Amino acid sequence: MNDAMIPAAKPLIGDEEREAVDRVLRSGMVAQGPEVAAFEHEFSAALAGSRECVAVNSGTSGQHLGMLAAGLKPGDEVIVPSFTFAATANTVAVTGAVPVFVDVDPETFCVDPEAVEAAITERTVGIQPVHLYGHPAPMDAIMETAERHGLWVFEDAAQAHGATWQGAPVGTFGIGAMYSLYPTKNMTSGEGGMVACATPELARQVRLLRNQGMEVQYANEIAGFNNRMTDIHAAIGRVQLTKLPGWTATRRSNAAFLDEHLAGVDGVVTPVVRDGAEHVYHQYTIRIEGASAAERDAFATALREEHHVGCGVYYPTPVHRLPSFGLELDLPVTEMLAREVISLPVHPSLSGSDLERIVAAVSAVATAGA
């Protein structure tokens, strides 16, 4: 048996990325400059339906600036899923607004439109759907609800570069969207984020906010931040963008293998892809059906320690129950998923033998626990 650990995720940085960084370093312009501008244009054309894109220093920054650019103010409410990374809610809360947590679909892990509808109050101004693990949220239903109630929609596409819903790319439905470029995402800029904007006005506001409130040096129009992306990071991102289609195809192929070979494993529920959805498999997330959190954690530990298969739990604590929010809410699907989910390796570096080892490991641990 091969004892080498199969990593849960593996950033792919090659000679092309190194050469791009060296090119920037040789140029002498390493802060926000021509590489950032080129990256914004190329990202827009490739992934954001030609919407104007603004590069920032992290996905969280992009989401925060998007909330501010949307006009979010203290006391406003924004509907968010609780089964997500904390940044989704944090970027609402740090503006002084209130994240209103709702439940999700047990099969796609994305926000439940009926739960969104039920959570709307007179203080609701917007909805933040999350395209979790790379599966698009049901944007037709979400947009219909938003339009009927006069709400804006800002998409959290941190994990969903290239995913589509009914033929349209994620990030092209609401007033704006954020994509993360963190090292473990489907593509990276080393660290960074991108904001896709539906209008020139929103894009200009995000640009002002990322650069101390100014477009012209020392002519600060508003109070802003230093959330700029460097040309070094943009150069990495530009190279990664050209590789993303091939990597996505490999992720889908790896997921198809896992779908086929885990389908009959007792107690293991493989991910669902809705009709009209194109999944990009940032994570391949299974459920250990009926497991307690302790049983799921033991399953994950056995995968890592006994079979050397890396895995992750995203996310073990619903955001509403984190100490930063500390809320007691009735979100049964979210609580179930937080107990049952494990994400298996699906990244493009996996070999055929790696995939076979993952299947064998999951089957062995499931059988042992039966």
Describe the structure.
The protein folds into two domains: 15-239, Type I PLP-dependent aspartate aminotransferase-like (Major domain) (Aspartate Aminotransferase, domain 2, 3-Layer(aba) Sandwich), CATH 3.40.640.10; 245-369, Aspartate Aminotransferase, domain 1 (Alpha-Beta Complex), CATH 3.90.1150.10. It is 40% helix and 14% strand. It is built from eleven helices and 13 strands. It is globular. It is of the alpha/beta class and 370 residues long. The chain has helices at 15-27, 34-47, 59-69, 87-93, 113-119, 139-149, 200-210, 231-262, 293-307, 332-340, 352-369; strands spanning 52-56, 77-81, 98-102, 124-127, 152-156, 164-165, 168-169, 176-180, 193-197, 268-269, 277-278, 284-288, 341-344. The strands form three sheets. Strands 1-9-8-5-4-2-3 form a seven-stranded mixed sheet, with helices on both faces. Strands 7-6-11 form a three-stranded antiparallel sheet, with no helix packed on it.
